[in-house]
């Protein structure tokens, strides 16, 4: 009764979140299909036949040039789907042996499942013609797709002279659904991706491009009367063996290697307590990162770099913790001894929580012009809670709480948020947060590099290259206790041909969200903008074009201007799956102070003007080839010297397959800055990855990351090294029977060279192996 009254009060325009057609009944057939890529069992003849024949992208509901069918049935425990993908030119099929979740550019077939039929989340299962799996979760609240989710399911693909076929078996236990009702209804979409000169998205349904909620338009399917989630228990023991060697090379004399052997056993447990509630627990986990992050260039950047989470314990049901602002970023937790997590969803209620300790405490201290990372050599405790309720009217209400603490530090954040979609074209977002933070004197001394200090001038530059000028650090020195607030407001109207939006983001100087990724505070920013879209017809050389523009202005709490920016871009998509974009921007922004006599926590510095032009293009001219190029030229603030210089930046990328098994990925970044008539710095960053994929389960990969930074010392205010070179390599073998039964073995090392070292000198080398096995009960 209460929910009906609230929905009626909120709605002035009718909003339907679910497809309005009558649900289609899927047949129950008590026969298991043999997953071998051959649709020859009798059960497939009795399965529901679904035609996949409607192109939904880049065109809106046009006839497919190829014939595709899906055959679907369930046996109470498993959903079986067989795809018959015909192709008049099978020699053009794009399919390569790749690691899981790495074949998105290939020919694909698959399906999306909204298992609660509430238009909030959709599981995605896609398979290339060789059986390589891609799975992810699409989140309608955040408008993001997370490929970090990994389910355990079976698929096999076979290419033949008429196209290819794929068989899929998805255990219903990998889905969250309500098994308290007899007949269950789920929304589904069956898809084929056909990448040729254009990449066609072909569906069994029609999609209204004027409604940006595609999950909401998925048709419903019912059945699953005997489907139960059962015990749903997974026990995953792991064993890690490793040897790590390090040495000190920070002086003119290189120290001897110090060796440390590591043998660790750990245990992960996943238990479906009820069909709607899942408990994850881990004891003594190995959270060391197996694969190297994509290299990022950090020169002339005063904010901390963002790296995505890749660890299974935190990734499982990570979408349950999502809100508009990134308040829970688990990469902040480096090496816990234990962790436990509970997640669930039922009747519109979604909740999640976790606790985990950490053997060290890393704290990001934000300011309005930069951020700094403090590493405390002490154990910490971490916890997070998230709750959301989804009304049928298109309204969602949520709340988030996080807490971090160690002996010398404590941070707590509370937040409430809401998303309201009164029509298919309008959306309102709001999020409000408040934080309480406390620092001890020992924490403050850590900022001073171990010296007991209380004055801003005594902050050590060894914390990072720009720590002297992070007013967030200065605020810590002046206040041991901080209480901060912030909020975010956004409205967007989105039609088929255009959209317009406006948002306002406020964070006061004492706001800290240390379990999330909030790298900037002490600002209030207003942004408004929009775009217009053109849709090409079949036969045109282009299929999509877009004109975008926005304007924003940012002040600190003292109403000093931090940034005022206007930018516009025009993009077009054309043949050979090509994309081209040109952008122009004008920006007035604040630099960083270098006169310590003027350094205080309330003021900023000079205002500089930046003007630049950016170009980006990419294309996939043939199977196994992807090439892109980004270029920027214009003015840029020289943050180290508080002036404007001339910047040139270029980043080419080339990914190519040499045969079905061998892939080469090349990425290089070049950046040069000149000021006052001479060079300031020249930076080169190369990332090379060579992979031989033996089959869908195993690969061997060599990664080489090389950094070369040269500075003109005569054009710097402070003393800097004239050169810094770093080389990191990794050789990795991976075997994955499924996402949780895995074996890794590898070797990695890294070293560097600066003005004190005459040649590249290694400082760390590691040999490691990891094995985990999943028992499903």
Can you tag this structure with a few keywords?
24-stranded antiparallel β-barrel; 777 residues; mainly beta; 4% helix; signal; DUF5916; globular; 53% strand; disordered N terminus; 10-stranded mixed sheet; DUF5916 domain-containing protein; 5 helices; Carb-bd_dom_fam9
Would you kindly provide a written description of the structure presented here, covering whatever features stand out?
The chain is mainly beta and 777 residues long. It contains 5 helices and 42 strands. The protein has a 24-stranded antiparallel beta barrel. Strands 1, 3, 4, 7, 8, 9, 10, 13, 14 and 15 form a 10-stranded mixed β-sheet that branches. A 5-stranded antiparallel β-sheet has the order 2-5-6-12-11.
Estimate what percentage of residues fall within beta strands.
over 45%
Rg of Cα set = 27 Å
Reported for the largest beta sheet, the result is: 24 strands, antiparallel, barrel
Q: Characterize the quaternary organization of these chains.
A: single chain
Give the termini separation.
41 Å
Q: Indicate the structural class.
A: mainly beta
**Helix count, DSSP H or I runs of 4 or more residues:** 5
Roughly what is the average pLDDT, rounded to an integer? Answer: 86
């Amino acid at each position: 009764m209460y929910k009906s009254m609230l929905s009626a009060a909120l709605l002035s325009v009718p909003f339907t979140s679910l497809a309005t057609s009558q649900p289609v009944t899927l047949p129950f057939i008590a026969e298991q299909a043999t997953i071998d890529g051959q649709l020859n069992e009798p059960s497939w003849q009795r399965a529901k036949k679904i035609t996949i024949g409607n192109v939904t992208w880049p065109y809106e509901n046009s006839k497919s040039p190829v014939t595709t069918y899906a055959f679907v049935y369930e046996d109470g425990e498993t959903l079986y789907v067989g795809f018959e993908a015909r192709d008049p030119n099978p020699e053009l099929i794009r399919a390569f042996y790749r690691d899981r979740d790495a074949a998105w550019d290939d020919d694909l077939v698959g399906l999306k499942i909204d298992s609660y039929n509430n238009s909030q989340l959709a599981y995605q299962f896609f398979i290339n013609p060789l059986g390589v799996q891609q799975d992810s979760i699409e989140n309608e609240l955040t408008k993001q797709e997370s490929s970090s989710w990994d389910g355990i399911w079976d698929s096999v693909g076979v290419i033949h002279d008429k196209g290819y076929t794929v068989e899929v078996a998805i255990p219903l236990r990998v889905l969250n659904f309500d098994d308290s009702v007899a007949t269950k209804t789920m929304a589904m979409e069956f898809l084929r991706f056909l990448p040729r000169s254009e990449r066609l998205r072909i569906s069994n349904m029609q999609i209204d491009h004027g409604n940006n909620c595609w999950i909401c338009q998925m048709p419903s399917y019912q059945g699953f009367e005997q489907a139960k989630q059962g015990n749903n228990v997974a026990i995953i023991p792991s064993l890690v063996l490793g040897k790590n060697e390090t040495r000190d090379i920070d002086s003119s004399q290189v120290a001897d290697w110090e060796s440390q052997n590591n043998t660790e056993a750990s245990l992960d447990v996943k238990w479906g307590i009820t069909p709607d509630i899942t408990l994850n627990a881990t004891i003594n986990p190995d959270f060391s990162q197996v694969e190297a992050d994509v290299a990022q260039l950090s020169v002339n950047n005063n904010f901390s770099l963002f790296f995505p989470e890749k660890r299974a314990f935190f990734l499982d049901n990570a979408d349950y913790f999502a809100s508009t602002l990134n308040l829970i970023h688990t990469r902040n937790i480096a090496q816990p001894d234990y962790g436990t997590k509970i997640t669930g969803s039922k009747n519109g209620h979604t909740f999640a929580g976790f606790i985990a300790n950490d053997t060290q405490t890393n704290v990001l201290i934000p300011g309005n012009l930069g951020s700094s990372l403090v590493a405390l050599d002490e154990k910490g405790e971490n916890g997070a809670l998230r709750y959301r309720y989804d009304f049928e009217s298109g309204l969602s209400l949520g709340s988030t709480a996080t807490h971090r603490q160690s002996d010398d530090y404590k941070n707590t954040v509370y937040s409430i948020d809401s998303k309201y979609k009164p029509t298919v074209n309008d959306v309102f977002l709001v999020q409000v947060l408040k934080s309480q933070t406390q620092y001890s004197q020992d924490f403050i001394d850590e900022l001073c590099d171990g010296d007991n200090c209380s004055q801003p001038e005594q902050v050590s530059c060894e914390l990072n290259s720009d720590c002297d000028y992070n007013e967030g650090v200065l605020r810590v020195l002046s206040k041991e206790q901080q209480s901060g607030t912030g909020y975010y407001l956004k409205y967007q109207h989105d039609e088929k041909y255009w959209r317009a939006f406006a948002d306002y983001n406020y964070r006061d100087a004492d706001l800290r969200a240390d379990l999330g990724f909030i790298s900037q505070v002490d600002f209030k920013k207003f942004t408004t903008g929009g775009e217009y879209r053109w849709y090409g017809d079949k036969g045109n050389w282009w299929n999509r074009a877009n004109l975008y523009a926005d304007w924003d202005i940012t002040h600190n709490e003292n109403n000093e201007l931090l940034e005022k920016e206007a930018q516009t871009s025009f993009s077009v998509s054309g043949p050979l799956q090509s994309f081209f974009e040109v952008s122009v921007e004008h920006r007035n922004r604040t630099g960083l102070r270098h006169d310590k006599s003027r350094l205080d926590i309330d003021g900023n510095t000079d205002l500089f003007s930046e003007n630049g032009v950016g170009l980006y293009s990419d294309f996939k001219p043939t199977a196994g080839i992807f090439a892109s190029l980004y270029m920027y030229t214009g003015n840029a603030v020289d943050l180290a010297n508080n002036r404007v210089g001339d910047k040139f930046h270029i980043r080419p990328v080339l990914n190519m397959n040499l045969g079905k098994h061998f892939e080469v990925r090349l990425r290089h970044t070049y950046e040069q800055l000149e000021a006052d008539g001479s060079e300031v710095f020249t930076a080169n960053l190369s990332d090379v990855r060579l992979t031989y994929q033996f089959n869908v389960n195993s690969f061997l990969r060599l990664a080489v990351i090389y950094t070369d930074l040269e500075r003109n010392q005569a054009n710097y205010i402070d003393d800097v090294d004239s050169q810094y070179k770093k080389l990191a390599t990794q050789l990795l073998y991976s075997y994955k029977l499924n996402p949780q039964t895995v074996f890794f073995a590898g070797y990695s090392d890294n070293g560097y060279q600066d003005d004190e070292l005459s040649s590249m000198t290694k400082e760390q080398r590691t040999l490691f192996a990891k094995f985990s096995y999943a028992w499903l009960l």
